[in-house]
Structure formats: C-alpha cells, structure tokens
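Dear colleague,

Following up on Tuesday's group meeting, I ran the structure prediction for the two-component complex that the binding team flagged. I've pasted the input sequences exactly as they went in, so you can double-check that nothing got truncated or mislabelled along the way. The structure tokens for the whole assembly follow below. Feel free to forward this to whoever is handling the docking comparison.

Inputs:
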Amino acid sequence: MTAMLNVKDLRAYYGQVQALHGLEFALNEGSLTTLLGANGAGKTTTLRAICNMVRSTGAIEFDGAPLTGRSTENIVRLGIAHVPQGRGTFTTMTVEENLQLGAITRKDKAGVVSDIERMYDHFPVLKERHTQQAGTLSGGEQQMLAVARALMLRPRLMLLDEPSFGLAPLIVRDLFKILGKINREDKVTILVVEQNAQLALELADQAYVIETGRIVMSGNAKEIANNEDVRKSYLGY
Amino acid sequence: MELFINQVLAGIATGAIYACMALAVVMIYQAIDHLNFAQGEMAMFSTFISWQLMQWGVPYWWAFLLTLALSFAGGIAIERLLFRPLAKAPILTNVAGFIALFAIINSVAGLTWDFTIKQYPTPFGSSPFLGSQLISTHQAGMIGVTVGLLILLYLFFQFTRIGLAMRAAASVPESARLVGINTSWMIALGWGMAAAIGSIAGMLIAPVVFLEPNMMGGVLIYGFAAAVLGGLTSPLGAVVGGFLVGVFENLAGTYIPGVGNELKLPIALALIITVLVVKPAGLFGRPIVKRV
C-alpha cells in the first residue's frame, strides 16, 4: 500500500513556543487512523499543521506532492476536509447553507444537490432541521453537521479534531459508527484525533500515540488496545 | 399634518442615503472589524469622478455605471494596497490608516477639482412627484434607486455562491478557509462593493448637498449613527437604521424648538452615544457571546 499522507520531521511553533518536535507518521489510502494523546500533547496542532494553519517546518506530502507553501484553502481544494475542534459551525446560517458551504468549491451543481440528500440520509436529524439556524442545534447535531459539511467536499482525506468532545456517550457511538461507514463505503481515508482512546481504538485500524509533540507509539489499533503497559502509561484507562 | 407627512417623506429620502452609507460601513466592519472613517471621502471622490465624466460629455446613466465600476475597482485596490498589509496590525494602526486615507482622498480631490461648490445634475428632475407637493421627483428617485439596490444586494447575498461565500467568510473566517473559500479575496470584494454602494449614495445626495470635497462629512456621521442604531453586525439593521435616522433627523429639526438645521448633527452624535450606552448591539445586532 502507498502512503496517501506522509509526514516527516514536522515541527510547529506558536510564537516562540515549539509544540511539535519532529513528528513522523504516514496514513495509508483507505485507512482509518487515530491519533491519541493527553491534553496539550500536540494532537490539534498536528491537524492544524497539515492544513497550514500554524507555522511549521518539515515535509508533509499528500499523494506524493508537498503541501508546504500552500494556503489553507488550497490544501482543502486538494480534497482534504478538516472538521475543527469546536465544530466550526456557521452558526448564523441555516443547516442547508452549512452543507452548501461544504461544497462551495465544487462545480457540479447536480452532484451537490444529490449529496445534500445523501447527507440527510446519513443524518436524518439534519433534514428535519434544514431551514433552522445552525447555531440552534444541540452539540451532537452540530457535530453531525460538521461531519456532513466536511463530506460535502467529497474529500479523499478527512481530518477530525475530537469529534466526541462534549457529546453524550450514546451520541459518540452513533457518530463513530457513521465514521466507520463513511470510511468503508465512501473510501474516505480518515485521521481522527481523540482523547477518548477506548472508543477511538475500537473504531480505528491504525493508531499513533503522541506525547509532548513526539510520536511515542504506533501500530495496529487492536494491538495497542490490548497492550496493558501502553494503556496504563499513555491512555489512562 | 401635511408638514408632518412632508417631513417624514423627505426623511425617508435622505434616510435612503444614510442607509447606503451605513450599509457600506457595515460591510467593511463585518469583513475586517474596523469602522471605515474614509467611507464618506471615498464616496465623495467617486461622485467627483462621475461629475468629471459628465463634464467630458458622458451621459448621466453611463457616467453612473462607469463610476460604479471604477469605485468597485478602487475599493479593491485600497484593500489590497493599504489594509491587507495592516490585517494583523493593532487597532490604532488601522485607525491611523483610515485617517490617512481620509486626508489623502480629501486633499487629492481638493487639488484636482478645487474646493468651490459645484452644481450636480439629477436625472430625475426636481418637479413635484406625481403632481403632489409632498415629495420631489429627485427624492422619489433617491428612494427608488436605494430600494432597487437593496433588493439586488439581498438577492446576491441569499442566492449566489459568491454571496454565500462572502457571508461565510465574514461570519466564521477560519471555517470558511476550511471549506476552501479564499477569505482574503472575499474581504477585497467586500471593500469593492462597499465603495460602489457609497458611490451611489454620493451621486444621489450630491444634487442636494452640492458637490465639494467636504460634502460627505455630515452624511457619514448620519451613516455611522444609522449603523450603530441598527447594529454594526447587521446589514438589515443598517438599512432600517438609515431610514429611521433620516426621519428622526427631519422631525427633530422641524418640531423640537431650537434644533433647526444647525443643531441636527449633534442629534446624530447624541443618538450614537445613547445607543452605545443603552443597547450597544443596536436594534438588530447580535451581542457578541462566545460559547465555550
């Protein structure tokens, strides 16, 4: 298998503070990978560095082509959808407008219309509320909307930043089921950053563990989940 | 009673101009979070350009359209050259930028066309509108053009892709970039549109206040009052605020003893301060609340 996303020696900085110290990892096409770690380990920074939203050095290659020097919007246009922490909802716009915005770079009008219908099939609650202001949705519904908005791009790679944050456990299970389905059926490669390690490891096939800006562990998700030492020292459950 | 109706209609007519100025101010405020103090001067300069075109023999409506296009391009140029480099600068640097822009445009206009007051034509004439003494055809024209403009803007922002992208870029810039919108160009586009809207206000009000480099000073203050009253975060509010301020200004000048024409401007300032104290978000604005 070829690596779709290849990250080498990634270092990221907030002002003078260095947040990532030479991160290396790769995502295979079609894989569902999770990036685990505690608060402040650098998970969000990693995703932001991929989309050039934080100052960074190192090499990030997507399909063999470097992303360095590309603006955020140009990286997105390559087919990399990013669901940011906090969901990034356009709160003053309707649910349907949020979905249209997800597809704003696409030219195929008919495809966009049918994809909106497809999202309503995935997430029936969004159909019920399609004329409502997105800011009035509950946290879980907004997370569904954020995932749907990202899918509207027809991405090849989807980055999710703590999709479980602030959601009830049952809703998280639903959401993760949908992510698994998207990965299998739509062949979208997924990288999901999580604090909820247990659930993320059930979902993913690959896992990386990150600590203070370095990858400290990588491998098959099941193996990491079954490794008691790793669980105790890094994942805390 | 006739005096009252007359004053209300005249207020709606000037209110249309304030609405345009307020809308221009709000568009830029939404895009970059700063008040454009030079909005009035930009409009004045556009009006001079249209006047110059007419002096060269271009018919009114051609000059009008050409000025719209030139103002649009000029607004984009100002954003690209002056305010894009200041995007991450502190507030005061931006304020200084606006004041500089104000002074430069004002002086260049004075130098080019001098400070004497000039007549400016109206395509609508100034006879009584539909035979009624209540409102002149030019005032009716001011209202008509503004309402037409507002409808077009509404359609643009609600039903076109670029309109949707511009709204997204103004409301949540980071998410807008994450769906692939070039937010920097959306800001430039906002400047261009604001400049074009301002030029319409200038060309419509010029027959009333006469053409000279300081013609928009008072108008812009009313525009600010309108924007603050309606809420700086709400384009609809800016428009409603514009009409309200226009009517209020006229009625106060007519009915409150001692106000007259001379003290109308302090009323606008008093209005700004009152709104900021009593209801800072304005009538239609959204108070800025962050959900954590």
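Residues 5-89+155-235 of chain A form a domain with the Rossmann fold fold (CATH 3.40.50.300).

Cheers,
M.
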